[in-house]
Amino acid sequence: MDEKILSLRERIDNELKAVSDLSELDSLRVSYLGKKGSITSLLKGMKDLAADQKKAFGADVNKLKEFTASRIEEKTEELRRKQIEKELAAMPVFDISSPVPRTNGSYHPITLVQRQCESIFRSMGFTVEDYSEVVTDYECFESVNIPKHHPARDMQDTYYLENGQLLKSQTSAAQNAILRKYGPALKENGVPIKAIFPGRCFRNEATDACHENTFFQMEGMMVDKNISISNLIYFMKTMLSEVFRKDIKVRLRPGFFPFVEPGFELDISCLICGGEGCPSCKHSGWLELCPCGMIHPNVLREGGIDPDEYTGFAFGLGLTRLAMMKYGIKDIRDLNSGSLKSLSQFTDDE
Ligand code: FA5
After folding, report:
1. Does 266 sit in the ligand 1 pocket, CB within 6 Å?
2. What is the structure's pLDDT at 348?
């Protein structure tokens, strides 16, 4: 082997033996094999050799190149292994018998406000119902007077499964089942239907500070003889004054929902900006919180209840927005963020 190549090989071998960290090793790799590296320059210098020397010299340089590359690979492995061993040695030893410092978890603000609403309505004789998140088109729309191709469906585009079921876009999807569950006791024993049914809803929604694609509603229904709008207003007022425990400005305005007649939008003055207008209320000063109305005769009929004999009200409280207002959370998206820093600061103040 050429003298020059032999001495370079010896130098490389010694330098690689001495190297002790990965970044140093990488600098050495560049200094041998990089564009301007010593081995690369040997190859470049071949053009000045006589034709009969080129072949042997080229073969020697290639051997040196292979030798260097494989020594670098071995050294990389060795240094990586040492680094892992060092990190492992620095890790605290897990002692199963040692006492664990415990930090208590906390409830999500939506859970807190949901529990509070449940307890308010329970105290007024309502039952709390659980309902599926995956429902049929009939449950979510047709049974509540929204036939196929009705324009009201445009407001509630949601996520569909291949089998035609969908993720419910509104808790109203449970109305028909509740009417059918409690209808017999109403008709046979005169027990009014009084139920709330909180649940997660899904919509294909462009999100902003007050709209999420996944949010919670809490629906409520009461059906009996002679139920009127004044009953509806009484229950809405009681719920809001219990939740907020302070005077809040509320407005009721006409609203269209195919499953109620008449229908209302119940808005509250935005508690983030005090009604001045901000991103949390789409700069209107008001937040749509709890649409409601008198249950449409078609919905009662579809649920097996005679609308000539019974009337009822229904409401669809935006539970996630209620949590925003109660706890002063400016952006609804924080509630689904999973950030413990933001979410663990709320407590049940009851
Ligand atoms: C409904 O979903 C009706 N089912 C409510 C209803 C029930 C009306 C019974 C009458 C009788 P709406 O789409 O407006 O209506 O939603 C009800 C509430 O849910 C809204 O006022 C709002 O507080 C909340 N909400 C709706 N969409 C979103 C969203 N994308 N993000 C967060 N909250 C929402």
Report:
1. no
2. 66
